Amino acid sequence: MALKDVVEELYTFRDHYYEHHQAASEDQKIKDLSDELNKTLKLFNEQKDEHEGAKKAEYDLLRAKALNILPDFNPEALEILTKLLKFHPKLVEAWNELGTCFWKKGDMKAAKTCFESALREEKNVESLRNLSMILRQIGQSPEDKLAKIHESLEKAKEAINLNIQDGKSWYILGNAYLSLYFTTDQNPSLLKQCLSAYNHAFSDASMKCNPDLYYNWAMALKYDENYRLALENFEKALKYDPFWNDPKEQLDMLVKHLENIQLMINKKGKMKLRKLKDILSSLQKELASSSANETFTDKKGQKVVLERSKFSALQEGLNADKILRGKVICHVYCTDSPSFTFCMIDEEETCFCVNVYNMVQGKGVIIGDSVAIYQPFLQHFNFTFCDKIFTFSSIRVNSPLQLEVNKKKLGQEVIAAPRLSVTLKSD
C-alpha cells in the first residue's frame, strides 16, 4: 500500500475512533492510536530504501504527518519538517505540518508564521483554517483580541470560498461567530450566523462524528434557547467522546435549570398565598393608575407607541407594539446560565419566566419589583427529553435597555461588558 494511503487511513482511524469504540476511554484511544502509529512507522521503515532521491521529500513529509497524529508535541516531526523546508521551502503541506508542531509546543507566534508562509506559496484551506483558530488565541488588550477575532472570521470565510463543501471550515467559521458573539454585545444575529455555519458543517460526512462540533453547536443552541436541540447535541457529543466531562456537566446543568424554571413557574415561586395576593393587589393598583399606551425609544432611536398587554394576549415571537407589566416573584439560579433568569406574574396572575441577557451581575431585579418589558419576545416550550417533559413559556430580553424597573428605565450602567472568554471546546 502507498504510504500516502497508509497515513490517510491512520487519520481516518483517529477521526472515526468512537464510532467503533464507544466504550473506550481517552487513555485507551491514545494507546490504540499509538499502536496504529507504530504499525504505520514500521511500514515507513520497510519502504525507506524505495524513497531515496526525488521521492525522499514526500517520504519525510508523510512520516512527519504520521508523527503529528497524536495530540502531544513530537520533536522528531519538528526536526524532519525543519530540515525538509530548508531544502524545499515551497512545500505548502510541510509548512502546515510544521505550524501544527509549533502549535502543540505552545509557540503560537511560530505556528502563525508557518501558516502565513504556506499562504505566501499558495492560498489553501488548511492554512486559512489554522490561522483562523490561532488568531482567536492571541491578542493582548481587549481591543486587540476583538480585532483578531474579526480577522479570524475573515480567514474562515476565505477558507469556505476555496471549498464550500468543507465541513471543518464551516465549523471553524461557526466558532469564530460564536467568539464574536461573546466579545461584543451578544447580538442575536451573530448567534444565528453561528448556528447556520454549524448546520452547514454537518453536510460534510466527515464531521458527523466530531464531538467538538456537537458540543459547540449545543452551547450555541443553549444561548439561542433552543433547549431541546441543545440537550440532544450534548448527548451526541458524549456519544462520540463518552469520557469527556464537559458535555455531561453542561447537559446535567441545563436539565436541572429547565426543571427549576418549570417548578418555579408551576409553584409560582413557592410564594405563600397571602404574599402572592399582596403582590398581585399592588400590581393591579399600579396598572389602574398608569396609561394603557406608552412611548418607547427603540435601539434605532425611533419612538414607538406600545400598547400594554396581558401575557395571555401576546403572540409567540416578537411583540413589537406591546409592553408587558408584572411583578417579580422569584429568581431561578444557574451556575452557568448566560442570562439573568427570574419569574413574574401579570395582572391575571399568569406566571412566566424572563431571561435577561447582557446584564451586569448584581444589577438584577429583586422579589416584589415592578417590571415592564418593552417589545417582549415570547417563546413556548413543549418537549420531552429522557422521559422528562418540559412545558413552560418564557420572555427573552436581549438587553436590559428593554426593561423598566419600579418605573425607572434601565440605562447603560447595567449593561455587562463583553465577555472575552468563551467556554468552548477548542477547534
Automatic annotation (TrEMBL):
Keyword terms: Coiled coil, TPR repeat
Domain Tetratricopeptide repeat protein 5 OB fold as annotated: residue spans: 306-416
Domain of life: Eukaryota
SMART domains in the cross-refs: TPR
Coiled coil: 266-293
Ranges of the TPR repeats in the UniProt entry: 92-125, 211-244
Pfam families, sorted: TPR_8, TTC5_OB
Protein known as: Tetratricopeptide repeat protein 5
Natural source organism: Araneus ventricosus (Orbweaver spider)
Gene expressing this chain: TTC5
